[in-house]
């Protein structure tokens, strides 16, 4: 493969589009949250969304695995969520070395405000794209993810 071919292939690869889209999505979420007066980041939202999805009380390691966060990043996010009184960490009854993450009353209530905002960003992102195209894109991205995951 010649140098121009390599350069063109790297410029045209799907990773660039995914990164650009991911960044735009996060920035839009942050903007929408800020405009609504909510003191949470997109990363905090992704943690809360997992807990809201009937996974309240998840082990910290499970939360890290399911949200794609490393232990250090997750610890910092949980520290900030605890400072905002949205979650609490409690030692697991069966394994004292493990912590479970529980939503507080405030954390549970926040869902009512955040979900409509997050949905508005999803609807904006999907505007003008057919359901079939969205499903196909999801399948392709899952395949790419499975090809490169650790």
UniProtKB/TrEMBL annotation:
Keywords: DNA-binding, Transcription, Transcription regulation. GO terms for biological process: response to stress. Residues 11-146 form the HTH marR-type domain. GO terms for molecular function: DNA binding; DNA-binding transcription factor activity. The keyword Ligase does not apply. The keyword DNA-binding applies. Signal peptide: none annotated. SUPFAM superfamilies: Winged helix' DNA-binding domain. Pfam families: MarR. This is DNA-binding transcriptional regulator, MarR family. It comes from Chitinophaga arvensicola. The lineage of its organism: Bacteria, Pseudomonadati, Bacteroidota, Chitinophagia, Chitinophagales.
């Amino acid at each position: 493969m010649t140098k121009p071919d390599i350069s063109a292939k790297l410029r045209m690869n799907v990773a660039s589009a995914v990164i650009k889209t991911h960044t735009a999505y996060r920035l839009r979420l942050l903007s929408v949250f800020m405009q609504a007066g909510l003191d949470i980041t997109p990363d905090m939202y992704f943690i809360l969304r997992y807990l809201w999805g009937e996974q309240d009380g998840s082990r910290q390691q499970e939360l890290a695995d399911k949200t794609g966060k490393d232990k250090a990043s997750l610890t910092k996010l949980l520290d900030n969520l605890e400072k905002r009184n949205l979650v609490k960490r409690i030692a697991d009854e069966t394994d004292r070395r493990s912590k479970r993450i529980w939503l507080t009353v405030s954390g549970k209530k926040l869902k009512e405000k955040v979900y409509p905002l997050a949905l508005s960003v999803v609807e904006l992102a999907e505007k003008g794209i057919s359901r079939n195209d969205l499903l196909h894109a999801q399948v392709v991205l899952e395949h790419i993810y499975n090809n490169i995951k650790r």
